[in-house]
Amino acid sequence: MIRSDKKLRIIVADDDPLTLTMIRYRLEADGHEVVSVSNGWELLNKASAEHFDLIISDIFMPQLSGLQVTSLLKQFYSPSSRLILISHMNRGDLAFSGMDAGADAFIPKPIDPDELSRSVRSLAS
Q: Is residue 54 in a domain?
């Protein structure tokens, strides 16, 4: 566990409840406030209405993908927000597509909790 001196308000979107639970547990243990949603539309609605220091989104979700959400958030709603994309498909082209859409980092699934904490901490500084 990597505790940060800075408490962040983080929103996490994933259609897999187990992944959401693991991410929430780890980030709360690191001292952050976490809001979780289960799809891209919920993420877009919440992130456009409320302030979050960090957004974490799965790339592959039904209805609205993490890449689409990233692009919309960066262009219209929350251009200064830091964003991490996650995916079970650990392909370089996905990471590059995510960065092109505006993401700051990419973490492959299964998520290593220590890597998650390190990525969050580095984006918080």
A: yes
Q: Is residue 3 part of a domain?
A: no
Measured CA to CA, the distance from residue 57 to residue 42 in angstroms comes to 11
Q: What is the CATH number of the domain that holds 71?
A: 3.40.50.2300
Q: In what order do the strands lie in the sheet with 54-58?
A: 33-37, 9-13, 54-58, 82-87, 105-108
Cut 0.70: pTM above it:
yes
Confidence band (pLDDT; 50, 70, 90) for 17?
A: very high
